[in-house]
Amino acid sequence: MRKIDKKQADAYFRARTTLVTIYLLIGFSASFGVVMFAEQLSGFKVNGMPFHYFMGAQGAVLTFIILLFVNAIINDRIDKKFGLDQDLKDKE
Amino acid sequence: MDSQFLVSLVMILATFGLYIGIAFYNMARQTSDFYVAGRNVPAVFNGMAIGADWMSAASFIGMAGTVMLLGYDGLAYIMGWTGGYLLLTFLLAPQLRKSGRYTVPEFIGDRYNSSTARLIAAVATIIISFTYSIGQLSGSGVVIGRLLEVPTAVGTIIGVVLIAFYSALGGMKGITWTQVAQYLVLIIAYLIPVIFMSLQLTSNPLPWLSYGQIVGELQQLDQQLGVSEYVVPFTEATKWQFLALMFTLMAGTAGLPHVIVRFYTVSTMKAARWSGAWALLFIGLLYLSAPAYAAFSRFILMTQVAGSSIADLPAWTASWVNTGSLSVADTNGDGILQWEEIVISNDIVVMATPEIANLGVFVIGLMAAGAMAAALSTAGGLMIAISAALSQDIYYRSINPKATERQRLLVGRSSIIIATVAAGIVALDPPGAITQIVAWAFALASGTFFPALILGVWWRRANGPGVIAGMLVGLTVTLAYIFAAKFGGFTILGIIDTGAGVFGATAAILTIIIVSLVTKPPSKETQEEVLDLRYPEGMTYKDGEVWRTDPVKANRPEH
Membrane spanning segments where (chain B) (predicted)? Predict the structure, then answer.
């Protein structure tokens, strides 16, 4: 156990919180946002369905999946940057 | 006994034999070095196991039927149950993992330093799991009822016996490879019929790309018939109900304890993140297929069944009419079955579709096996959650602290049997469709656990009195709203029983905040522990300083 600079630890916390806020905003716009304006967004078609229906049936779910994978990739990089990479430690 | 019965039974027995076989094979290897070395299940497979844990009779049997009957309004279930993983992964999983408490009552009791809060959380666990399992039992009733061509209620009774037996075997929970096999059976069973239907109707083997065309044709059919259109939003309920239901399902997902445990079974934070991402991908595969299922089934029913002579209906209708879930009465007496005269229960759409589309005995048998896996595995997990809450959190911690292991085991076992039978009695005459019953469980979770957990990890000022008051208020408001909306016809903004969680959660969050602020702040120790949760595993906060620790050495129990 060794002491580390609290500023660095807080930087990690801030980076994570900012990213999480962005992810949630994207996720909520794809779901709650589209539902809010469902009537207005039904005018054009995606994948053969009116847009609001497409988002409910496919778009939102795909967005959620992509967000989780993006989060996993980016967070791995952040961990590496802060020296928290656990796989590397295992090999040492 | 027809050949369909035999084929379905053999498929169900064969798949269950496979799960039990894998479980025994793994148990036998548990002592060997190989097993210990290979303890870290790759994230992809852990994702599949989470998927199998998650997908219950509501997802497998109920969801596509709900989407078919509600049209666009049913999509709240699709987005709600997948979107919950965002809240879970981003707002709760890393912190709960770091806290090292394995059950929700345990976390709440320790975080708020209150055994009363722990007790309330245990009672809430029981109420939620109980409600959830009513949906599972009613699902197994549909499958068994069709299999034996008996009323669904009789099927439910047989399901009760099976589930009690299955749970007594330990539910085969926690054995990752068994669950991987379960997921594979479940998803193959779900996808084969959709792919076949897609080929039949559009000659395209990819239902996800082809059903848009069918949705377009449904629009035209609806216009010709003058019925409410499939894709038009908010025909069944208001926009507020849609939003409330979606919120309820998302918050409930984040508050349901049995999925969170899965994030603990992997050794690193990184593996937990990847497991979650893979899990949503595998769950998404089923959720993306459900609307295709719904569109194809509705199209076949409208074009091939409706319009046929009442005396000349396909054979499958008779077996489903026998279960009491389908009605094809020629109400206007013209000798022809009209679309409006088909009254089909949400819950049988998925199970009946392979028969409607004439997909053959093996596909139908496979569907039965997949559905039984979904219902039994989730019900088993829920029963174990109930027995753990009763025997550990309530009996051992609060009633009889001197209880021996034997006594606790006895309380646990008997609570499984009592809970299964009680849930079975309610499920004999299900108070709603499977998805609806399960939605109540989610409403209760979003009114109790979701606020307690979110504020517990993100707000260090939240304290014991706050959470006790908050959970009680949330539970009361949610229950009262469900009953008032379901039986009293009381609604706000058109939000019905399934959207009750939005009121429960709001009331609970406000109560926790207000009561916490007017009472004493939590101890410095507790506040420091909450601050510590901000930092990832591998960093420890203590007395205003942050220390680097080795996360790999953290002790994790083997599941």
Answer: 6-28, 49-72, 78-96, 117-135, 147-169, 181-201, 240-264, 276-296, 359-390, 410-428, 434-459, 466-484, 490-518
